[in-house]
Amino acid sequence: AQTVTQSQPEMSVQEAETVTLSCTYDTSENNYYLFWYKQPPSRQMILVIRQEAYKQQNATENRFSVNFQKAAKSFSLKISDSQLGDTAMYFCAFMKPSTGNQFYFGTGTSLTVIP
Amino acid sequence: DGGITQSPKYLFRKEGQNVTLSCEQNLNHDAMYWYRQDPGQGLRLIYYSQIVNDFQKGDIAEGYSVSREKKESFPLTVTSAQKNPTAFYLCASSVAISPQHFGDGTRLSIL
């Protein structure tokens, strides 16, 4: 079974500061994909960023970037210049094509941006 | 605009009653998924379907049933066998190795 671990149930950050959310995963596969989703109070799941395991370069989307360490099976999310709208639950997810693109989610990190 | 529509947004179930949650997508995605979300937990997979007329059990399928008669639709029935159905239910779809797109969810409560 694939497991995704988010060891930080709750985090907070001052507005305009930088915060890093941790995620580790366990797999014996070599071909897989990693994602970070954001779930604001509205409960809608929003894709934040995506990383292909075969790519060495870390993915970046505006203020969001990842630190992908394949050997360590680590996939952390860095949010720069935090904004109040970043307050949400953040879920790390793992997907491997060999199981019909089934997704495996971590338990989430609740992030609060403090004004 | 393309997307996933879940209905109803709120649903109440009486003891011993089956209820069906609707999920419709117009994204032309092949795969569809149902997840359950409980407080403090991540998303747990109930069922998924990769093509029409075919579906597989996820990690917590007991007490649930699904059908996939049309590509656009993947309804979930919460049966009376599901003893703890109160939760937030999310439907998602995807194509190939693309990220999953999610609906807005249905909150199910017990009367």
Outline the secondary-structure elements:
The complex is a heterodimer of chains A (about 120) and B (about 110).
Chain A: E1 3-5, E2 10-14, E3 19-21, E4 24-26, E5 33-39, E6 46-52, E7 60-61, E8 64-69, E9 74-79, E10 88-96, E11 102-105, E12 109-114
Parallel strand pairs in A: 2-12
Antiparallel strand pairs in A: 1-4, 3-9, 5-6, 5-10, 7-8, 8-9, 10-11, 10-12
Chain B: E1 4-7, E2 10-13, E3 19-25, E4 31-37, E5 43-51, E6 54-57, E7 64-66, E8 76-78, E9 87-94, E10 101-102, E11 106-110
Parallel strand pairs in B: 2-11
Antiparallel strand pairs in B: 1-3, 3-8, 4-5, 4-9, 5-6, 7-8, 9-10, 9-11
Overall description:
The complex is a heterodimer of chains A (about 120) and B (about 110). In chain A, about 0% of the residues lie in helices and about 55% in strands. With about 120 residues, chain A is mainly β. In chain A, a hairpin with a 2-residue loop joins strand 7 (about 60) and strand 8. Chain A is globular, with a radius of gyration of 14 Å. The N and C termini of chain A lie far apart (about 40 Å). Chain A has strands at about 5, 10-15, 20, 25, 35-40, 45-50, 60, 65-70, 75-80, 90-95, 100-105, 110-115. In chain B, about 0% of the residues lie in helices and about 50% in strands. In chain B, a hairpin with a 2-residue loop joins strand 5 (about 45-50) and strand 6. Chain B has strands spanning about 5, 10-15, 20-25, 30-35, 45-50, 55, 65, 75-80, 85-95, 100, 105-110. The interface of A and B includes residues 43, 44, 47 and 97 of A.
Which pair of chains has the greatest number of interface residues, and how are they split between the two chains?
Answer: A-B, 22 and 24 residues
Q: How far is the first residue's CA from the last residue's CA of chain A?
A: 41 Å
The major sheet of chain B is characterized as: 7 strands, mixed
- Helix share, percent of chain B: under 10%
Main pleated sheet of chain A: 6 strands, mixed
Q: Any idea what the shape of chain B is?
A: globular
Low-confidence stretches of chain B: none
Order of helices and strands of chain B: EEEEEEEEEEE
Strand-pairing-aware structural class of chain A: mainly beta
Q: What count of helical segments of chain A does DSSP give?
A: 0
